[in-house]
Amino acid sequence: MVPASEVEKAMSGDELLELYRRMLVIRKFEVFIRDHHSRTSTEDVLFHGMTHLSIGQEAAAVGACAALERDDYIATTYRNHAALLAKGADPGKVLAEIMGRRNGYNHGKGGSMHVTVPEVGSLGSFATVGVSAAVALGAAFAALKNKTKRVAVGFFGDGAINTGIVAESFNMAALWRCPVIFFCEDNHYALTTRTRSVSPPQPYSARATAHGIPAVHVDGSDVVEVYEATRAAVARARDGLGPTYVEAKTYRLVGHMVGERFEDRYRAQGELDRWKGRDALARLPDVLQSAYGVTADALAAVDRAADAVVKQAIEYSLSSELPTAEEVGSGVFAPSPEGGPG
Amino acid sequence: MTAINAREALRQALYEEMERDPSIVYLGEDVGLGGLLDVVSGLAERFGRDRIIPTPISEAGFVAAALGMAQAGLRPLVEIMWADLSLCAADSILNGIAKLHYKSGGLVSVPLVITMTQGGGVGHGNSQSQCVEALFGHLPGMKIVCPGTVYDAKGLLKTSIRDPNPVIFIQPCALMFPWPHRKGVPLHTEDVPDEEYLIPLGRADIKRTGSDVTLACYGSMVRKSLAAAQELASSQISVEVVDLRSLIPMDVDTICASVDKTRRLVIAQEAHRHLGFGAEIAAIVGERMFKRLVGPVLRVGALDVPIPQYPGLEHMVLPGVESIVTMVKRAMAAS
Prior knowledge:
The complex is a heterodimer of chains A (342) and B (335).
Chain A: H1 4-10, H2 13-35, E1 37-38, E2 47-48, H3 58-66, E3 73-77, H4 81-86, H5 91-98, E4 122-126, H6 131-145, E5 152-157, H7 164-176, E6 180-186, E7 189-190, E8 193-194, H8 205-209, E9 215-219, H9 223-238, E10 244-249, H10 271-278, H11 280-292, H12 296-318, H13 325-328
Parallel strand pairs in A: 1-2, 3-4, 3-5, 5-6, 6-10, 9-10
Antiparallel strand pairs in A: 7-8
Helix pairs in contact in A: 2-3, 2-11, 2-12, 3-9, 5-12, 6-7
Chain B: E1 2-5, H1 6-20, E2 24-29, H2 43-47, E3 52-55, H3 59-71, E4 75-82, H4 90-97, H5 100-103, E5 113-118, H6 133-138, E6 143-145, H7 150-162, E7 167-172, H8 173-176, E8 189-192, E9 205-208, E10 213-217, H9 221-233, E11 239-243, E12 246-248, H10 252-262, E13 265-272, H11 277-289, E14 298-302, H12 311-317, H13 321-333
Parallel strand pairs in B: 2-3, 2-4, 4-5, 5-7, 6-7, 10-11, 10-13, 13-14
Antiparallel strand pairs in B: 1-8, 6-12, 9-11
Helix pairs in contact in B: 1-7, 3-4, 9-13, 10-11
């Protein structure tokens, strides 16, 4: 955490409380998914199949998205719930989508890994990691060309830093000075492999700086620090100064995916506990009280408000039916004015 | 009417569309001097370097970037120099672009065109001579257009650009290069209307009417099929040449109506015979027309080996006019 004196310059207590509320909603939202999920059964479970949670990483998503306007763009990976909610997506429609319901944003056709919310600037969630960097770069290119002043954030993890498409994106973003922020959520693992163990010793950010892209490292558990760094990157982008690489050191306190079989076998001894100690949601209430004078009552009210949001999202999702066979079997193409047999 | 070649026809289509719609941008490798086949020659001078954009050699990246552009107010045309190189961008195309309309529940449309020159006959060897339509057609989500004539190339490209869906626009080598590929052979030209025209996607065109055999073909095999039909006419075999023009969506009704008349079907593709569109058409016609057929549906295609570079060997592997003539005669003999 940055010293309280600097924090106070960054935002007011009310503003930080609001970021805390957003993080809390995401945490409760994803805990609900985790607790009602089964990988092996479709009977009597609400969530099924490959599902990736950001529990422990909320501060990175919330801090980054707090620096964006609603019509700025984001592109995400399969670990997308946190960023989409942080960007302002409706929790009920996201949850219904993850449940495969008709009232989900994508009528249940996307599912957990592919939630797409254009109304908050989401360009899609991509299960092949690294693609999000290139898609964001393209939207940023368009924003630059059309002089809209919008920026795009490509979210990806440390695992994706080793993909070719991220390297290609760095090159083109620098070449064309695109208003894009490459936001690397470094949770230290590519699935269950320590990314460091499959990478050279140089910092990941060296890949960005090698292309002339400035790099910033932040504590991904510190929502204020993430926000400040992203805000500076956004300002650079809007000023026509091109891309920035922001790397947030963070940690997922759960498995790579829900129901992961190896959860206890790849983390270093004591690592999980150490990061639980850094968990922003565990620390922020103290910070809010001691440095901002937020009362215990106010914190409790925020907790209740977050509960209410998630409860409403659950009720909305459960009230939605499954899409019909006809709906599922159509919609590969948008209707063409020219028509023709399909 | 003016006689032009396919390169000029595509350039005209681009010029007209970019003039009409300022959101169109064209990007690709080595397009700075007009591109490998001169398709964008002179367009940068007219539309500027921010609309004719040379890219680094980064197929996966710039194709995925086009997906972002298409969602942010541009209509990108992406040139992939050789179709074989599209495999570098296969993930961006098939997992990224192709699925977005469906997986977003229809919230997102992806208006972009990926052009690529494909096929053999010009000595480019095993990794720059292949046909990729079946690779990209198998997984749902991409429209696939493959003209066989200059006239169709222009009209289909204009329609592809205006389509709200992602389109793979295949430019056959046999149309883009002199064919046969010999010294002194000029590029094929056709009379093309001076006024604007569009050709809808998903509509086949009967290029020659006939009564004995339906010859379904597309791309580089269209002109070869017409030459074969001409030759077969002297053997009193009347061939109906159905040019599919677009493979996805495919005009199955026109194929079936023709087969209903001729009761025989041969499919000609430059692509390898196995697991191709020919197999798909044979299956569809088998399902819908089994009792009307008087003989087996036969396929013409490349041998199922990598395409050799040496012209003599390449000629043995790729289907030509003689392969089509032989297969049509076999279809006649088998019934």
